[in-house]
Amino acid sequence: MSFMDQFGLRGMVAVVTGSGQGIGRGIAWGLADAGCDVVLNARRESDLTETARGVEERGQKSFIFVADIRDRSEELAELTLEQFGKLDIWVNNVGGSDEKMTRPLIETPDEIFRSQLDLNLTTAFQGAKAAAKKMQEGGSIINIASGAGMRGSPFTGPYAAAKAGMLNMTETLAIELAPSIRVNAVSPGPVVTEAFDEVLGVAGAEEAIAATIPLGFLGTPDDIAHTVVYLASSASRWVTGRNILVAGGRTHRSYQYQERLEET
């Protein structure tokens, strides 16, 4: 196998939850570009149909599973084996918030906090369990976390707490599932997606956020997909239990440094 061949995924089968739009769609298309057949999941069939079209335009097969993935991961894993005969890669991407507003943590209703943990953490737990039972040796589980889970996150506390839990879970699973299965996480920084614009809803917000990023621009779904393809491939065969922050250099410390510069 040549050096560059190690980044390819020819003949592999991947599941990507939450792949109807945004980062999930970008990941699905990136995996297809690398040679994967892709099983797609989201709640809206129209979104999945568009993602599936992109997978097939890249010369790969797709299968659509229209469902809220909560409590459905085992079914999805079974369907993957029925359709493709194997499972090599599982990407826990589903997440976000069904409530498009922010508030201080102590003002968050209990049911909203529980819902955020369920959507962003429990789904990943269930997905990892289902995948581990069906994967062959050499499989890869990739959790899409968030830069918010690596620091204090005012006004998005439940989401950040869930993603912080995902990072801890990633390390635990990596130890428990080694050496047969690798488990890693990718933490996106500010990436422009439909959900991103919906939550911000403020003219000029993108420019203001880009100003806090050392590289000077917001990310795209492709930026996250590139990292996922690396972690899914044999090029990362000696990487497990790690979290890769893909955020243009933006960290909690760099953000604070930028604020101090603006004050001087």
List its salient traits.
264 residues; alpha/beta; Rossmann fold; seven-stranded parallel sheet; 7 strands; disordered C terminus
Describe, in plain words, how this protein is organized in 3D.
By secondary structure, the protein is an alpha/beta fold. It has a single domain (4-192, 220-249), classed as NAD(P)-binding Rossmann-like Domain (Rossmann fold, 3-Layer(aba) Sandwich). The protein has helices at residues 22-33, 45-57, 73-84, 110-134, 157-177, 194-200, 205-210, 221-232, 252-263, and strands spanning 13-16, 37-42, 62-66, 89-92, 139-144, 181-188, 243-246. It has a 7-stranded parallel β-sheet with strand order 3-2-1-4-5-6-7, sandwiched between helices. Strand 1, helix 1 and strand 2 form a beta-alpha-beta unit.
Describe what is shown at a glance.
The protein is an alpha/beta fold and 264 residues long. It is 45% helix and 14% strand.
CATH class: Alpha Beta
Instruction: Please tell me the CATH architecture by its name.
Output: 3-Layer(aba) Sandwich
Straight-line distance between termini: 54 Å
Biggest sheet: strands, sense, closure?
7 strands, parallel
Shape: globular
CATH names the topology as: Rossmann fold
Q: What structural category do the secondary elements indicate? A: alpha/beta
Beta percentage is: 5-15%
SSE topology string: EHEHEHEHEHEHHHEH
Number of strands: 7
